[in-house]
Fold these 2 entries.
Entry 1:
Amino acid sequence: MTEGIKKDVIIIGAGASGLLCAIECGKRGRQVLVLDHGRRTGSKIRISGGGRCNFTNLNVTAGHYVSRNSQFCKSALARFTPRDVLDLVEQHHIAYQEKEAGQLFCVKSSADIIALLEAECARSGVEIRLKCSVAEIGKGRGFMVATGQGTFQAGSLVIATGGLSYPDLGASGLGHAVAKQFGLRIVPPRPGLVPFLFATRDQKVFQELAGISLDAALSCGPKRFRGSLLFTHRGLSGPAALQASLFWTPGELISIDLLPDRDILGAFMAKRRSRIELRNLLASYLPKRLAEAWCDQMTISKPLDQTSDKELKAIAGGLHAWKVLPKGTEGYATAEVTAGGVDTGELSSKTMEARKVPGLYFIGEVVDVTGELGGYNLHWAWASGFAAGQVA
Ligand SMILES: Cc1cc2nc3c(=O)[nH]c(=O)nc-3n(C[C@H](O)[C@H](O)[C@H](O)COP(=O)(O)OP(=O)(O)OC[C@H]3O[C@@H](n4cnc5c(N)ncnc54)[C@H](O)[C@@H]3O)c2cc1C
């Protein structure tokens, strides 16, 4: 590969982590070039949080992240906190609001966050090249990156290419390929925060319910998520299902409490001598169509006075622990994140630098650190970008 234009730092990926890292490197007087094959910066930020970008969470702790090494993210999270994000947001006069559980969203639009990042990049003298595809990466004394816009060279190379989800928005496997090229281990990637697909039998019964949502609790192994559950044409979505998907392994049953906090057996017993049909009684606790489909599927709906105690107990138990065996998930096309990625054992938790390859850094979603729903993934992008930005 021929030598090219020299920079101090090349960052591949103009998303959340790449731009934050670029700003920090630029502030230190480093000559920074950000490359991205997309037409715009921050494509995922733009669609995040339904267009309002849930940019951080006041409750950020390592406990909200999934990784083979649950301790790895601690150091970066400690050095770039939700308060640091807010300082930036407030300096740029971006109106924000707290939704449930510490989730901070833009009041107007996620475009405000992208404008903030672009303005800070411009202030730090960062050069951004878009529509720039990477053909080859080589290493001599520094790193050489051959692109459709020429070859560039730098002593530090930061990989901020994100995960595999939403390929329509520019996601690619480049980050994983670079890790492999330099002999770094990868934790097998998989779609995360993604809707479940019903098995064929369940889909036939429940597809009619598409659009219905209710407050439920989903358990996947020891993890339990309370929140909204949404029936789709193909399966289950909504925050509770998306969260559970992070912990689900194919072939595993999920258990759904359709009536959390409610003593439905007590409600049955209170009407023990009534002639009311079970499906009609259930319709006062569940959306009517769900009550009907659930009764059709699971039980015979009889008047309560003709149903035995044993049957009522079994029905109540089923409502609190409806066992579903998904046939899979919707996959990368709609997954909010990619779990897995560059094995954290290969990286310094302080700087994100590859231990075996000085000068090579991995930040953001490409690393095996995946946040729960609620602003944790963008916060990891900021925090890991900040950590690398202090040294790259
Ligand atoms: C629909 C949706 C909603 C979301 N909402 C939220 C939310 O509200 N809050 C939250 O915390 N998280 C949210 N997330 C997750 C969050 O957006 C990501 O975790 C975060 O953007 C990851 O940042 P990153 O910098 O690692 O990668 P990205 O932001 O994905 O940036 C990667 C960049 O690398 C570029 N790139 C990739 N491959 C190449 C290549 N081969 N050559 C050149 N450039 C390349 C891409 O074009 C992209 O610009 C959401 C995700 C989705 C899909």
Entry 2:
Amino acid sequence: MINIPFFSKSPGTSLGIDIGTSSIKFVEIAGGSSATLENYGEVFMRDFVGEAPVKDTEGSLLYSNEEISEALKYLLKEAGVKNKKAYFSIPDFVSFFTSFNLPPMKKEEVGSAVQFHSRQYIPLPISEVVLDWFLAEGEEGKEMKINLVAVPKEVVEQYQDIARLCGMEISALEGEMFAVVRAFTRDTEEKTAIVDIGEQSTLLTVSEKGILRTTHSLEIAGNMLVKQLAKAAKIEYNEAKKVMMEYGIEEETVRKITSNLATSLFSEISRAIRTVESKEGKEVKRVIIAGGFSLLPGVVDYAKDALDKEVITKNCFEGIKYPETLEEDLKEISPSHAIALGMALGGIEKGE
Ligand SMILES: Nc1ncnc2c1ncn2[C@@H]1O[C@H](COP(=O)(O)OP(=O)(O)OP(=O)(O)O)[C@@H](O)[C@H]1O
Ligand SMILES: [Mg+2]
């Protein structure tokens, strides 16, 4: 996690916030090792500030800082969240993840070795990024595997600006790949792949013993399918999005129009999983499908057919205390709120 100076743990609850392209989600939990769910919620940017300008936005958030902060402020106020400090996830498409091995060395040497190695792996000048890294495997005096995320300083500043505009403080920032792994596989030993299909990007992560092993960012995500539908049906993008949200890829016509993209997406996922398997000499046991796009009718079934693996959806809130009456709701929102939950769980781990 990237600590923001003057970090101090907020009393009581841990608040995780995921600012996505399509919606902002938050999860608030309380307690130590046996966490209790306090609150959660989501606001769709479309409902709040109107439809997003349709543009290709590689590597940036779609809405302005002002629009995002207005929506976030509204969401937290409506939900009655009192906590003014939060753990924010950073989208994979604005950060760079890499992992590499370091030869045996003393603990105090690791920091500068990581800095040194980073230059090789990060496609931006080191002076322009904030590095977040941790030891994924090994120990002092033995070979070590380092997981590293570099976040452009500009992005960190953008989050600081959003928090300031909301009258909030950032407890820490963290790449969403760590959050999604924590949310879904914190108690899972087996090698597991998680596919988070969002609006702007699809994130594939592979974890083992609950620790992130690799990530892949895939270009095909929800908005590409919507664009394709809009073009083929000669309708506005926003109209196509409504059709897509209602019928998903189950409906015959939509399925036909989008099937080449859906096929490419899942064959890319399959290929990436096979690459990890052959590199690590170990089979990925199952694939968890997540992200808001997986909530569309037909997507999970499509994944089940397309991937030669056990494919499941999972309630990431399992193991956290919550009223039984919420069970069905939580199962339903699990795919879209997993990153926010992972951030909140990270906050609790950090506070302990
Ligand atoms: N409950 C739902 N039912 C149907 N579709 C949904 C639902 N929730 C989200 N979606 C659709 O899933 C898509 C992706 O949602 P998601 O919340 O994962 O995106 P995001 O996190 O905002 O985007 P990104 O991570 O790419 O920045 C959106 O296009 C949205 O319309
Ligand atoms: Mg997302």
